[in-house]
């Protein structure tokens, strides 16, 4: 007999069931017993407690000719969830997710309820009890069907069976979770202790969850914000494919900017060529245990948040898990990524940072754990708690890794700073040591200069004083008088030259020397100056002078006084330091852009330590003072200043020609075209 006849036939349901039972009509008793057994048959037909409640809901809907049936489980006073549902019409199917927004009436026996979502339906509500406690409710929505007492009595008996089944299902779920959780917790903890990477932790956790909860597929998605060029506002399959082909994200970037759990704002108008910030979703881990699962196209590595209805809904619902029952297949991107047509039941657990207390609503979401199955499934709160505990443990590991990385970076940065500071201190110490050494050397040079200048000043004065005393004698013959006068003149000129050198040195130090160029003929100028200086050389050395001058005398515009002092000072030094019975050579060479003037002699070698410092102020070579060779240490320093004054350069070399003998050459290069600036 059909279900519609059972509910609608006036012959069958005209008399109350109690009256028929009192009449001991065995046929009626058998009939109602068969109907109850037919409705509660799923309790014995399946061993899977996950499938039992949906089968019972479907059986109730079919046998009572209902458009929808919902099995509701109370979680706490005023809070309940839909544990199973069977919706025949599309309208009834659309209210499944909204049913929890309306408080159910208390009904120990079946009662009609005018449900705001279904005003034109007769909605029957009855409590589900087990072990003397109300644990839920049974809601059956019919249209155009009258509820008789017999039907209510059958519904009451069925509700008692469903209450027992709901309790058994809860106990079975808790028992299953008590067996699954230690394994999941142990494997995940072991992976954390072994310092596995975050993507490896997710792979282990998702694989264990899929296996332990007997699911078909698990995904881990992460969020990443990026700037991209503005795309046309179209949602064609071509654009979806183009966006899905973007695999530019790095899998290891777990700490990128995150999204706040709020509804995504509408896209703002952007001028052509401008950029905007978009949120990409990266597929990090995929565990799929379906056999022979061949996709029409491979999964992309990333896709855009704006193109996924499921992800936007889950983001707005965070921090709570979001459950999809397969009624909505989503966007083309969702159909490609989540395959809701093949895996209708799905839960998305938000990945959020761990906190010490209650979860903070404004805490940023950085991804989701997605679990799917190919059959209708109502996710039990105990299961959701298990999933959230596993995610929480991974979040703690992530925070620990991040803090450890930051600490290591801080230690490395601090170590680098300390090393840099130590290196800087070492350099400063070295610089200070060198400066102290230079100061010490400068003090020695100053002391030596003062001693030398004092000697150079006193020696002429002593000679002049002695000559004056001799000239005052009455009996001095004329020849001796001339000799004393020559001494006076020579020492006076020496004193004047010393004073002039000191004054010129001061002028060059303070850059108060005026450049006064005039044209001179170098052959004649050098010949005359060399002859005059050579006459003053020590006759006891028997030195010779050799001039190597070009046939055509070069003409040059230069400061004659400075050039004269340069030639004179270098020739005096050449005669002073030349070895006895040797030759002093003067070489003049003309090149296209410069004139080379060179003075060379044979002397004692100049050490490699003294050679670079030969033009320093007050610097005299090693052993010069001990050899009683006259000089102040200002001569070559003044020569270098004058060479630079006439825009030239000077250099010195000392080449060993034989043991204890070296050829010392001073080379001056003067440009033929002077820089007027």
3D structure, described in words:
With about 675 residues, this protein is α+β, with helices and mostly antiparallel strands. The protein folds into 3 domains: about 5-175, Beta-Lactamase; about 195-265 and about 275-290 and about 300-380, 2-Layer Sandwich (Beta-Lactamase); about 515-670, 2-Layer Sandwich (Heat Shock Protein 90), CATH 3.30.565. The chain has 17 helices and 18 strands. The strands form 4 sheets. The protein has a 6-stranded antiparallel beta sheet with strand order 8-7-6-11-10-9, with helices on both faces. Strands 2-1-5-4-3 form a 5-stranded antiparallel beta sheet. Strands 13-15-16-18-17 form a 5-stranded mixed beta sheet, with helices on one face. Helix 14 (about 480-510) crosses helix 17 (about 635-645) and helix 15 (about 520-535) crosses helix 16 (about 560-575). The protein is rod-shaped.
What is the strand and helix layout of this fold?
Blueprint (H helix, E strand, L loop, with lengths): L2 H6 L1 H4 L3 H6 L3 H14 L2 H4 L3 H15 L4 E9 L2 E9 L2 H4 L17 E3 L8 E9 L2 E10 L6 H45 L4 H15 L4 E13 L7 H8 L30 E14 L13 E3 L4 H9 L4 E3 L7 H6 L7 E8 L12 E9 L7 H91 L6 H32 L7 E5 H13 L9 E5 L6 E5 H18 L5 E8 L3 E10 L31 H11 L3 E10 L2 E11 L6
Parallel strand pairs: 13-15
Antiparallel strand pairs: 1-2, 1-5, 3-4, 4-5, 6-7, 6-11, 7-8, 9-10, 10-11, 12-14, 15-16, 16-18, 17-18
């Amino acid at each position: 007999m059909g279900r519609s006849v059972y509910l609608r036939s006036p012959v069958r349901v005209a008399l109350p069931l109690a009256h028929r039972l009192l009449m001991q009509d065995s046929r009626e008793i058998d009939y109602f017993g068969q109907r109850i057994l037919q409705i509660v048959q799923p309790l014995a037909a399946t061993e899977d407690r996950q499938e039992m409640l949906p089968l019972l809901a479907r059986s109730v809907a079919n046998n009572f000719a209902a458009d929808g049936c919902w099995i509701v489980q109370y979680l706490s006073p005023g809070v309940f969830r839909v544990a199973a549902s069977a919706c025949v019409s599309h309208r009834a199917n659309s209210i499944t997710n909204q049913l929890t927004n309306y408080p159910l009436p208390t009904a120990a026996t079946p009662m009609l309820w005018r449900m705001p979502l279904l005003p034109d339906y007769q909605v029957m509500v009855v409590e589900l009890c087990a072990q003397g406690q109300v644990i839920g409710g049974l809601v059956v929505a019919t249209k155009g069907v009258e509820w008789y007492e017999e039907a209510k009595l059958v519904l009451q008996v069925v509700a008692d069976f469903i209450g027992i089944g709901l309790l058994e299902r809860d106990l079975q779920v808790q028992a299953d979770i008590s067996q699954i959780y230690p394994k999941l917790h142990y494997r995940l903890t072991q992976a954390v202790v072994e310092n596995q990477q975050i993507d490896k932790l997710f792979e282990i956790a998702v694989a264990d969850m899929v296996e332990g909860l007997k699911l078909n597929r698990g995904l881990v998605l992460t969020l990443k914000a990026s700037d991209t060029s503005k795309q046309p506002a179209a949602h064609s399959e071509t654009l979806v494919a183009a966006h899905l082909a973007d695999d530019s994200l790095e899998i290891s970037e777990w700490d990128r900017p995150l999204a706040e759990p709020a509804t995504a704002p509408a896209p703002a108008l952007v001028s052509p060529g401008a950029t905007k910030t978009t949120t990409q979703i990266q597929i990090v881990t995929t565990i799929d245990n379906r056999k022979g699962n061949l996709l029409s196209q491979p999964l992309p590595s990333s896709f855009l948040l704006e193109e996924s209805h499921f992800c936007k809904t889950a983001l707005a619902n965070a921090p709570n898990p979001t459950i999809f029952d397969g009624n909505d297949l989503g966007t083309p991107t969702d159909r490609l990524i989540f395959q809701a047509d093949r895996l209708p039941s799905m839960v998305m657990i938000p990945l959020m940072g761990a906190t010490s207390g209650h979860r903070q609503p404004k805490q940023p979401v950085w991804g989701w754990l997605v679990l799917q199955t190919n059959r209708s499934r109502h996710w039990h709160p105990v299961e959701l708690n298990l999933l959230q505990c596993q995610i929480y443990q991974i979040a703690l590991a992530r925070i620990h890794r991040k803090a450890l990385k930051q600490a290591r970076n801080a230690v490395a940065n601090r170590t680098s700073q300390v090393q840099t500071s130590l290196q800087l201190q070492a350099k400063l110490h070295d610089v200070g040591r060198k400066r102290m050494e230079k100061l010490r050397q400068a003090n020695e040079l100053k002391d030596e200069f003062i001693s030398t200048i004092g000697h150079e000043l006193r020696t002429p004065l002593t000679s002049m004083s002695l000559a004056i005393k001799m000239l005052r004698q009455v009996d001095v013959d004329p020849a001796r008088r001339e000799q004393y006068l020559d001494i006076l003149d020579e020492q006076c000129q020496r004193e004047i030259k010393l004073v002039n050198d000191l004054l010129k040195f001061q002028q060059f130090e303070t850059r108060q020397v005026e450049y006064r160029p005039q044209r001179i003929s170098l052959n004649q100028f050098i010949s005359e100056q060399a002859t005059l200086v050579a006459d003053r050389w020590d006759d006891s050395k028997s030195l010779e002078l050799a001039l190597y001058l070009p046939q055509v005398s070069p003409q040059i515009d230069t400061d004659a006084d400075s050039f004269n002092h340069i030639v004179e000072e270098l020739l005096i030094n050449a005669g002073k330091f030349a070895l006895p019975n040797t030759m002093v050579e003067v070489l003049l060479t003309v090149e296209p852009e410069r004139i080379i003037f060179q003075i060379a002699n044979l002397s004692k070698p100049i050490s490699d330590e003294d050679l670079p410092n030969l033009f320093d102020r007050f610097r005299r070579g090693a052993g010069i003072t001990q050899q009683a060779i006259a000089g102040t240490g200002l001569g070559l320093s003044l020569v270098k200043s004058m060479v630079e004054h006439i825009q030239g350069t000077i250099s010195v070399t000392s080449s060993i020609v034989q043991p204890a003998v070296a050829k010392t050459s001073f080379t001056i290069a003067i440009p033929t075209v002077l820089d007027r600036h």
